[in-house]
# Entry
Amino acid sequence: MRRPVLIAGASSGIGAATAEILAAGGYPVALGARRTEICEQLAAKITADGGEAFAAPLDVADDDSVTAFVEAATTALGEPEVLVTSAGAVELQRTHESTPAEFAAQVQIHLVGVQRLVAVVVPGMKARQRGDIVFISSDVVIRPRPNMGGYVAAKHGLEGMARAMLMELEGTGVRVGVVRPGPTLTGMGMDWDHATLAALFDEWTPWGLMRHAGYLKPADVGNAVAAMVATRRGAHLTLIEVQPEAPVT
# Structure
């Protein structure tokens, strides 16, 4: 059946890769991000490749933007069957050196912004007794990294919210799942200079956080999302953790 997908954070990285993978699998995809022009370019590429895509502005930190995106995507593609939350941005700062506003900004993007989306999307899914919510988390939930306190706290909150929703929605036909990637080559962190990265790695290594030099590609995470939403009804993948394989020595 036709299963329209809403993807938050679709302008790059995991969101963009997921959009292309799902579109190739026959899912109509609505691409949302603040960088609307990039989403429009990706939507055009997907359409040229034979898929169905729609792009619109989305700022998960703004109530009106979230509502407008969902309404526009529904008009263009139909009632959403799948929601993938992959919007994100990481600020490097020690927790005690962050201002409350800086800390709150991380929580706003990675937790409160996600709740904004589910508050708009889930009631309709529940009424139709069908739907998949896929939260993109991070392995910082089980392996915290210093200098990322706001991000770590937000991802812990995200997974806690996901577990609560899983119980709240049991028996409704709406499935909730978490995809938890390890280190991934996305736009987040790729603009940090060499000195910053070297200092981070020096600090992370004693905690066992840099075991090898392998990184996931965004498509590796997108494939996990695709597997989760394609699981037949009657089964429920609630958590997929994806880690980079160590280079063969």
